[in-house]
Amino acid sequence: MIENVQPVDITPEQFEHQVCDWLKASVDGLKNFTITHSSTLEGDSGEYEIDMIAEFEIFDGALIKVLVECKRYKNPVKRDVILILESKIRDSDTHKGMVFSTSGFQKGAIEYAQQRGIATVTVQHGHTNYFTRAAGTRPAAPPPWVKLSKYIGWFITLTDEGNESRTLIDDDRKDPLIEWFNSEMPT
After folding, report:
1. Is 104 left (phi over 0), alpha (psi -120 to 50) or beta?
2. Mean pLDDT confidence for 26-52
3. How far apart are CA 110 and CA 88, in angstroms?
4. pLDDT tens per residue, range 68-90
5. In terms of residue numbers, what domain contains 51?
6. What's the CATH number where 102 sits?
């Protein structure tokens, strides 16, 4: 879990809108990319409510579906949430999944998600990415001349040693999402 993650004060609508904006801006090289918000998905076991479904084509018309869940919790996302999403992916013949959280992830959730090719992203206020060189100090607010996104995301993975690795997502940087969309699907 990201150390000392404070849940972001954001409405459900703002949260899902921010995630949707990041995803729409991450379509480099993806053909016929669409996002459906607040969807019902039919699976072998019945219907599922999904925050978003992203779809795009690869090769000559092969449709790829991605289930996207937005978790606005007070505590870090547990492994169970990832297990449930993986079950929905399998049951609906979908290809990939993503979980965005306002409160981080437990290490077990990150481990399991990474094994299954599910993206984990923690959403935070943009000002939390501002630091100074002074040892141990952090200003109350960044100076007005510093350009910061209102919200940022930390694309979280684990290194081979089991340590967290975080890659920044903001209004100007979508590389982690672009790379993930273009990565191989889990087998």
Report:
1. left
2. 88
3. 18
4. 999 999 999 999 999 999 999 99
5. 12-132+140-181
6. 3.40.1350.10
pTM: 0.89
Question: Does some domain include residue 63?
Answer: yes
- Any alpha helices (H) in 50-140, and if so which ranges? 79-91, 107-116
Q: How far apart are CA 45 and CA 23, in angstroms?
A: 28
Burial class of 165 by CB neighbour count within 10 A (0 to 12, 13 to 18, 19+): exposed
User: Do the domain assignments include residue 53?
Assistant: yes
Per the DSSP assignment, residues forming a β-bridge with 166 are 156
Radius of gyration (C-alpha) of the chain in whole angstroms = 17
The amino acid present at 62, given as its one-letter code, is A
- Total domain count for the chain? 1
